[in-house]
Every structure is written in C-alpha cells, then in structure tokens.
Design goal:
CATH class: Mainly Alpha
Number of strands: 0
Radius of gyration: 21 Å
Helix content: over 70%
Strand content: under 5%
CATH superfamily: MFS general substrate transporter like domains
Number of helices: 19
Distance between the termini: 37 Å
CATH architecture: Up-down Bundle
Shape: globular
Order of helices and strands: HHHHHHHHHHHHHHHHHHH
Largest sheet: none
Length: 421
C-alpha cells in the first residue's frame, strides 16, 4: 500500500514538473536558449523582443487574479491539460514566422493560456503534494525538475538546430536558419501537446485531494482576507525582485555572443548549459530547506545574486576570460535559482489558507511577476542603445538594485514570521 502511494506521489510530481516547464517552453525558453538566433530569424531587435514579453505580461497580470479564483473552484487536471493543448497550438503559429503584429497577439494569447488556466492550478497541486512538512522539498523538486526538463530540451533543441543546418552557422543563409529553427519549434509544440495528454489521463489523484471553496463564497471577501496579511505583501516584493534576476537569465547567451564573441551555436550552448545549474541548485536547496528554514536560503540567494550582479555590472568579465565568465554565471545562477526554488514554499509561513491558495498565488503573482511587463523592454532598450559590454553592465546594475531591495524585504519577512511564532 505504501509503495502504491509513493508511486502515485512520484507520478504526480513528475507530471507537475513536465507540465510546469513545457507550458513556458514556447513563449520563453526557446528565446532564452537561442536568443541570438531568435532575434535573427524573426528579424527583431532586443527592444521588440522585450515588448513581446510585455504583451505577455500585461495579459498575465489580468489573468493571475481571476485564474487564481477559478483554481480554488475547479480541477487542476482539467485546467492544466487544457492550458497545455492551447499553448501547443500557438507553436504552429510561431513556426510560420508571422509578422511582428501577429507575434504580439500570439504572446498575449500565451499569457492567457499559461497563466489564467495553468499557473495557480500548478502551484496549488504542488502545495498539496508537499503536505504540512515538505513544502521546501515540494517546490525545490518542482523547480529543480523543471530545470532538468528545460536543460534537456534546450540541449535537444540545439542538437536539432545544428544537425538540420548544412555547413557552418556563419555561412548559412537566413532562409536555411529559419528552416532549421522551425524544426525546433514544431518539436517543442508536439512535446507540449503530448504532456497535456499525459496530465489529462494521469493527474487524477490531485483532483481527489484538492480542497475547494464553495462557489457561493464571495471572491472579494477572499481577496480582502488575503490582502490583510503583511507577509503576503512582503512575499510579492521578494518574488518581484527575484524574478528580475530570472529575467536576466534571458541574456546569458546574448552576453556570450556580444561580449565573449561566441558564435550562435556556442552561445546557444551557454544558454542551455546554464540551465543545468537550476536542477542542481533547486533540488539541493529544497532538501536543505525543510531541515533548516526556507527564509535562510532565500536570504542566502539574494546575497549570492547580488554578488554575481556586482561582478557583471563592474565589467569584470571580458573577452578571453572564459573561466571567469563561467564562474560568474554560476555564482549569479546559484543565487537566482536558490530564491526561485523556495518563494512559494513560504506560503505556509505567510499564513495563506490552503483552500485560498489560488487566490493568494494570483494576488502575489500580480506584483511578483510584474517584471514580465517592464524588465524585457528596459533590458532591450539598454542593450540596443549601448552596444557591447556597456549595455550589459547597465542591465546588471539594475539587477544590483533589485537584489538589494529583495534582500531587505527578506529580512523583514523573516523577522515578521519569527515574531508570529
């Protein structure tokens, strides 16, 4: 009986990990791993790509609260599988290399499918999986596992792109690069739909465990109840600052291309390789957090992220300094992923009721994920108007500011929950 329960829990966690990463592969991971190539084949500059992320973020901002409310009322299995199927359809549009205007509509569409239908449902299902005593492990395993999926798929994508291309990357035409990249997009779309089918068939146990609120219960009352909690407001600020760090991972491969002078394949490999740090850090932190305190590791993450941001903002990493480049990326990534692994694991410490998880996550995410709106365009503007290392230094100085704010908010949160016992 115990082995059956363990197998069931393992299956649920596996599905949460797979769906939790594949839902964002088309709108985010592809452009993160293949940033120079993505800009090239879609004929975009950094500001335009950042603006696409802003369109996504604006729709997501509206979706977080209302999506959180429906999460507290309906089945995570049905919401998550529907989101995956609809997201995969968008990949077919992306593979046709549409106009910039159509791309804006597509990213808005993805903002709806991946947030309104999916985000709150995934967080609630993960919180249920962790139970009372394993929240750090649950969210650490979730994000660490997602990192394994992202890194593996990133490497597979780079492999597909490299074998389809005939000859050296520098000597190929734009049409040839487009054709090769379309295979990457179509393969990714197929995988998203396939994971959606697995979720629909096998995620039934999470439906049985899921506490739901009465449909007659006033949603405004729930929102007011959540917003009275100071810890929730601090958690919003913590996630916002941490998410700026995560957004900066989008330009790791671009730094390799523009500053270190790697070619597009080598830059994509940097984008994929840094993703392998995510599972190592998140799983390690998740295992340690439940034995110590979640907030200790979040504070550790902000300090480490601040150190990494300072290194890049001072322009220390220059062409030819490959070892320093990779070491600095590791420091920055360790800080970023340490925080990311745990910021929803502290919902219990923040006194968010389990039955109102969707509403709490929705409200927190409105502020926490607001960098989806402003970070992309700001980064794009700084990079486009300050070519070379200078633009990257400005971006990392922005990260220094947010790391400092996040660190202060984390200390306040830790003090507050200690006071509350």
């Amino acid at each position: 009986m115990k082995s059956q329960i363990n197998r069931s829990k393992f299956l649920i966690l596996t599905l949460l990990i797979l769906s939790g990463e594949f839902i964002y592969f088309l709108p985010y991971v592809l452009s993160r791993v293949f940033r120079p190539t993505f800009l090239d084949v879609f004929q975009l500059n950094n500001f335009q790509l950042g603006s696409l992320f802003s369109v996504y973020g604006i729709v997501a901002l509206l979706s977080y609260v209302y999506g959180g409310i429906i999460t507290d009322r309906y089945s995570p299995r049905k919401l998550m599988s529907s989101a995956l199927f609809l997201t995969a359809l968008g990949g077919l549009v992306l593979a046709s290399y549409p106009s910039y205007q159509t791309l804006q509509i597509l990213y808005g569409y993805w903002g709806f499918t991946s947030v309104f239908l999916f985000w709150g449902a995934m967080i609630k299902a993960t919180r249920l999986w962790g139970g009372d005593n394993n929240q750090g492990k649950a969210f650490g395993f979730l994000d660490g596992g997602r990192g394994i999926v992202a890194a593996s798929m990133g490497s597979i994508g780079v492999f597909i792109f490299s074998i389809v291309l005939i000859g050296d990357i520098e000597s190929t035409s734009l049409i040839e690069r487009k054709e090769a990249f379309s295979y990457v997009i179509l393969f990714s779309s197929f995988m998203v739909a396939f994971i959606g089918l697995l979720v629909l068939i096998f995620l039934k146990n999470s439906d049985e465990k899921s506490p739901t609120i009465e449909k007659s219960l006033n949603s405004i009352t729930n929102i007011k109840h959540v917003l009275k909690n100071e810890s929730i407001w601090l958690l919003m600020l913590i996630i916002m600052c941490a998410y700026v760090g995560y957004k900066v991972t989008d330009i790791y491969s671009l730094y390799a291309s523009e500053v270190m002078f790697y070619d597009q394949i080598e830059a994509a490999e940097v984008g994929a390789l840094q993703l392998y740090l995510r599972p190592i850090v998140c799983i390690s932190i998740g295992l340690l957090a439940d034995k110590t305190k979640n907030m200790f590791w979040i504070i550790f993450g902000f300090i480490t992220m601040l150190i990494g941001a300072l290194i890049f903002s001072f322009g220390v990493v220059k062409p030819g300094m490959n070892s320093i480049f990779f070491l600095s990326l590791i420091v920055l990534a360790v800080g970023t992923y340490s925080i990311r692994a745990l910021y929803f694991a502290v919902l219990k410490e923040a006194k968010a009721p389990l039955a109102l998880t969707g509403t709490a996550v929705g409200l927190i995410s409105v502020v926490g994920y607001s960098p989806d709106i402003f970070a992309g365009p700001i980064m794009g503007y700084l990079l486009d108007n300050n070519p070379g290392i200078i633009g990257h230094q400005y971006v990392y100085f922005m990260l220094v500011i947010f790391s400092t704010i996040g660190l202060i908010a984390s200390f306040r949160f830790a003090k507050l929950i200690t006071k509350q016992g």
